[in-house]
Amino acid sequence: MPKAGRTRIEGIVVDAGGGAQLKVSVTAVPKKGKANKALLKLLSKEWGVGIRGLRLITGAKDRNKTIGIDGDSTRNLTILETWLGERN
C-alpha cells in the first residue's frame, strides 16, 4: 500500500483465492518506482538480506507483487521461517 501513514509490515492476509500474502505499507508514492524501492528496503531490513539480494519479479505497477530472494533456497526458507516465528 503506497502513500501510507507509515512504513511497516501489517501482517499476513488471505486473498480471495485462499493464498497467503504479506501486507506491507510504505510512505513512498508509487511514482518512478519509489514505492517498490521502499518495499524492497523494508523487506531487506526485516529479513536481514542485502537489498541487492531481493528483486521484484512481478507487479512493478500493481499492488500485488512477487518478490524473489537470490541465493540458496534452503537458507532463504530458514530466514523466512525464523522471521515469521519471531512475528507470531
Q: In total, how many domains does the architecture comprise?
A: 1
Radius of gyration, in angstroms, nearest whole number: 13 Å
SS-derived structural category: alpha+beta
Strand content: 25-35%
Strand count, sense and barrel status of the largest sheet are: 2 strands, antiparallel
Range of helix content: 25-40%
- CATH architecture level-2 label: 2-Layer Sandwich
- What count of helical segments does DSSP give? 2
According to CATH, what is the topology? Conserved Hypothetical Protein Mth637, Chain: A
Can you identify the CATH class? Alpha Beta
Uncertain residue segments: none
Q: Which short descriptors sum up this protein?
A:
2 helices; 4 strands; two-stranded antiparallel sheet; alpha+beta; globular
Structure report:
This protein has 88 residues and is an alpha+beta fold. The protein has a single domain, classed as 2-Layer Sandwich (Conserved Hypothetical Protein Mth637, Chain: A). The chain is built from 2 helices and 4 strands; from the N terminus they run ββαββα. The chain has helices at 34-47, 73-87; strands spanning 8-14, 20-25, 54-58, 66-69. A two-stranded antiparallel sheet has the order 1-2. A two-stranded antiparallel sheet has the order 3-4. The chain is globular. The protein starts with 7 loop residues before the first strand and ends with a helix. The mean pLDDT is 92.
